[in-house]
Design goal:
Blueprint (H helix, E strand, L loop, with lengths): L12 H8 L6 H9 L8 H12 L10 H5 L6 H20 L11 H8 L10 E7 L5 E9 L9 H10 L4 E7 L9 H17 L2 E8 L4 E3 L11
Parallel strand pairs: 3-4
Antiparallel strand pairs: 1-2, 1-3, 4-5
């Protein structure tokens, strides 16, 4: 086992980050900072190496699961949770860095360009709600429902409860059809009508409901369906 205590201070990852910046650290060193300590049998450096070797490189870290992390020598439940949290934070920073600067959210293509990544490779239907302020600027997005292969059950109560908690003035709903066909189902149409009606009562307007298929999409706003009729 490598004795981490014998490494000169100026060569330890935390000290190197302070001296040279995080972009000058190796992936192994960044993981060592996240892991903090090793175990009785493995130094923190060895645990970091075990992790990278087990997943086959940093590119595969983004899809790692809690169970997989816990199966790696030297990583317990707490370390695994902390690593997953760091990975998720990185994903969000990478994907949402420019969302807060969004100006117009009434164009379905703009919305899809920002949020299409949420549905890549998904085999179940997932339902997201995007919350906007009174200037139609992005506040937050929440995944509120996950369904079976062909269907999800979205409840207006949860959608509007979160709108109040976020002080949102507008919402956009977006979900996928794993079948690849973005044509709205009867349930999709009925839900959209209901959300429009409830939104009108509570002064929280539904701007659009978008369905993502396989290289195709459907927009209730763009199709002048439901949203443009009283």
């Amino acid at each position: 086992m490598i004795n981490f205590k014998n490494i000169p201070n100026e060569e330890k990852p935390r000290e190197r980050l302070v001296l040279y910046g995080s972009d000058n650290l190796s992936t192994e060193e960044l993981l060592m900072i996240l892991l903090k300590t090793g175990t009785k049998n493995y130094s923190v450096k060895e645990v970091a190496c075990n992790l990278l070797e087990e997943v086959g490189g940093i590119d595969n870290l983004k899809n790692i699961t809690l169970n997989k992390l816990e199966s790696i020598k030297g990583i317990g439940r707490i370390k695994a949770i902390e690593i997953l949290a760091a990975i998720e934070l990185g994903k969000r920073i990478n994907n949402e860095v420019s969302i807060t600067d969004m100006i117009s959210c009434t164009n379905p293509i703009t919305i899809i360009n920002y949020f299409n990544y949420l549905f890549k490779g998904k085999l179940q239907e997932e339902f997201y709600v995007i919350y906007l302020n009174n200037k139609k600027k992005y506040l937050d997005k929440l995944k509120l429902f996950i369904g079976s292969i062909n269907t999800s059950i979205a409840h207006p109560r949860e959608i509007f409860k979160n709108a109040y908690l976020l002080s949102a003035s507008f919402i956009i709903c977006i979900h996928n059809h794993p079948s690849g066909d973005a044509t709205p189902s009867i349930q999709d149409i009925e839900l959209t009508k209901k959300l429009k009606e409830i939104g009108h009562i509570h002064a929280i307007e539904l701007i659009d409901h978008i369905i993502i298929g396989n290289n195709n999409y459907y927009s209730f706003y763009e199709d002048n369906n439901v949203l443009t009729h009283k």
